[in-house]
Amino acid sequence: QVQLVESGGGLVQAGGSLRLSCAASGRTFSNYAMGWFRQAPGKEREFVAGITSSGGSTYYVDSVKGRFTISRDNAKNTVYLQMNSLKPEDTAVYYCNANAGKIPNKLPGFGSWGQGTQVTVSS
Prior knowledge:
- Helices cover 0% and strands 51% of the residues.
- 34% of the residues are buried.
- The strands form 2 sheets. Strands 2, 4, 5, 6, 9, 10 and 11 form a 7-stranded mixed sheet that branches. The protein has a 4-stranded antiparallel sheet with strand order 1-3-8-7, with no helix packed on it.
- Strand 5 and strand 6 form a beta hairpin.
- It is mainly β.
């Protein structure tokens, strides 16, 4: 089982930026596809962005395309989510997800999870 620890959340004004990090340990990081999900109060956990184990391909939910960028550094066992032009509707707890294999999960019921980091965007 891979262990995941997220960091980088916080309070930001609309239009601002944040960079989330997720540090992995316990397994060979480069064997895992990685993803970010989020869950707002009263809503289901949803896929936000994913990256293949090699870092060669990325995937995004339509609502964040052009604003968020997922990347990974396999030498540092870390995946990042750069979030620009943040909107109040981006407010949620953001979770890091690891899926053994090449392709990231897009469903919330699979893989390993971090504890989450709160992102709050004020209007």
